[in-house]
Amino acid sequence: MITKVLLIENNIIRRYELRKVLGQLGCEMESVVNGLLAVEVLQRDAFDVVILNPHIPLLNGVDAAKRIREIRSKAQLPILAMVAGYDTKQAYEYALAGINDLVYAPATAASLGEVLGKWIPGYTGGVVEYLATGSR
Description:
Elements: E1 3-8, H1 12-24, E2 27-32, H2 35-44, E3 49-52, H3 61-71, E4 79-83, H4 88-97, E5 101-104, H5 109-119, H6 127-133
Parallel strand pairs: 1-2, 1-3, 3-4, 4-5
């Protein structure tokens, strides 16, 4: 099973880096550059997980998560916020908005694979294989 990821990120370099990491994990990624586009895409397409930058334009990550939760529940679609560090107040705000978990940037195949495995039932992205062999 290929894991379908919707990435909400306006930084082209981060999109490129995450596409490489997600590819190593056997994931297929679609990306949008703001929260409004993400809500539109999620109304018509199915994904296994959403990864978002909380500081995206037009509709920030918290507001986008709230809108996404009107479409899909936490159990139906995990939302992961990509953050630079842990901030208790922000983490609480993210949880209230319906964000399932945090992914720390810069994400590696090991760290991202661990979080995906936590939230996606049946996820077998090859993290163990990747760590054991160093390549895919």
